[in-house]
């Protein structure tokens, strides 16, 4: 019989969730991360970062078995990368049309040099270069009025794009989200799993997802166990969504991540043990 652990998959946001909001450290999540490695449970990064940024992080830390970048537009598993669009040409045409329609300069991560991205984000130059390697989404560098934003949203819509306001930037992006990308990754993990273990019965993955922001909601909604990580500077944490299995982590960032993952694994693994005893 296959170890049960193979049929669990964990999907996690990075900034403010697995990574500390200020220091980007995941040290406090180390015990749970080690446990996932021991149990061979795949961990998938799900971020608005670029694939270049995620790959670099994984080269230095080897945390993740799969990568989802640009807020769900890029899905990478075992060097096999899928882009769900839009094409860079569509992004560029929409941005040029926005520039024509409003009276302020509109630049973006795709149009400026890394030193400007570095100045805009506070990222070191090397990181800014990776942040600029975008395929399907483009943070705008502009100082818009509300009216400019409304005009830009209309134009984005005509190109079947979204204009999403993140922490710092308005980003032109496609209509896919973290939830769609998570579904796709589960399909691909299932295929890989069946190839590795041809005798195993088809089994669906039990999924755990962790996030801290509204753009994580579609991913949390897809998961069997949803974990909301409280924000570091928040007052009271209001639930991001209605979910039958929503856990609000006891602490922000990686410390809360660690406790929530360990608690849920205890629950899933103990339940399986009990049912094996009953049915075995
Ligand atoms: Mg986050």
Unreliable spans: 1-5, 276-280
How helical, in percent, are the residues? 40-55%
State the fourth-level CATH superfamily of the largest domain.
Answer: HAD superfamily/HAD-like
Percentage of residues in DSSP E strands? 15-25%
Number of domains: 2
Mean pLDDT: 90
Please give the number of β-strands: 12
What CATH calls the topology of the largest domain is Rossmann fold
Strand order of the largest sheet: 5-4-3-2-1-10-11-12
| Overall CATH architecture of the largest domain | 3-Layer(aba) Sandwich
Give the overall shape.
globular
Report on this model:
The chain is α/β, with parallel strands linked by helices and 280 residues long. The protein folds into two domains: 4-83 and 177-279, HAD superfamily/HAD-like (Rossmann fold, 3-Layer(aba) Sandwich), CATH 3.40.50; 88-173, Threonyl-tRNA Synthetase, Chain A, domain 2 (2-Layer Sandwich). It has helices at residues 30-39, 51-61, 88-101, 114-121, 125-131, 146-158, 178-196, 217-222, 253-279; strands at 8-12, 43-46, 66-69, 74-77, 80-83, 107-108, 137-141, 162-165, 170-173, 206-211, 225-228, 246-248. The chain has an eight-stranded mixed sheet with strand order 5-4-3-2-1-10-11-12, with helices on both faces. A four-stranded antiparallel sheet has the order 6-7-9-8. Helix 1 (30-39) links the parallel strand 1 (8-12) and strand 2 (43-46). The structure holds magnesium ion (MG). Residues 13, 15-17, 212-213 line the site of magnesium ion.
């Amino acid at each position: 019989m296959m170890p049960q652990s193979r049929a669990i998959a964990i999907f996690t946001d990075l900034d403010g969730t697995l990574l500390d909001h200020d220091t980007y450290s995941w040290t406090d999540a180390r015990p749970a991360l080690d446990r996932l490695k021991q149990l061979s449970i795949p961990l998938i990064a799900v971020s608005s970062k670029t694939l270049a940024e995620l790959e670099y992080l994984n080269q230095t830390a080897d945390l993740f078995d799969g990568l989802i970048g640009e807020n769900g537009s890029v899905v990478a598993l075992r060097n096999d990368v899928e882009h769900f669009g839009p094409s860079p040409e569509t992004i560029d045409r929409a941005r040029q049309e926005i520039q024509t329609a409003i009276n302020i300069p509109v630049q973006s991560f795709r149009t400026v040099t890394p030193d400007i991205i570095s100045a805009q984000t506070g990222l070191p130059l090397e990181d800014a270069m990776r942040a600029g390697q975008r395929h399907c989404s483009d943070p705008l560098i502009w100082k818009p009025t509300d009216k400019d934003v409304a005009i830009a949203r209309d134009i984005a819509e005509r190109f079947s794009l979204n204009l999403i306001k993140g922490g710092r930037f308005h980003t032109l992006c496609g209509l896919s989200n973290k939830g769609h990308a998570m579904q796709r990754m589960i399909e691909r993990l299932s295929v890989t799993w069946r190839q590795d273990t041809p005798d195993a019965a088809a089994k669906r993955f039990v999924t755990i997802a962790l996030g801290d922001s509204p753009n994580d909601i579609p991913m949390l909604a897809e998961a069997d166990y949803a974990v909301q990580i409280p924000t570091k500077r928040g007052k009271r944490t209001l639930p991001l969504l209605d979910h039958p299995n929503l856990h609000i982590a006891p602490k922000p960032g990686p410390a809360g991540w660690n406790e929530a993952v360990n608690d849920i694994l205890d629950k899933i693994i103990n339940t399986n043990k009990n049912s094996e005893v009953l049915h075995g």
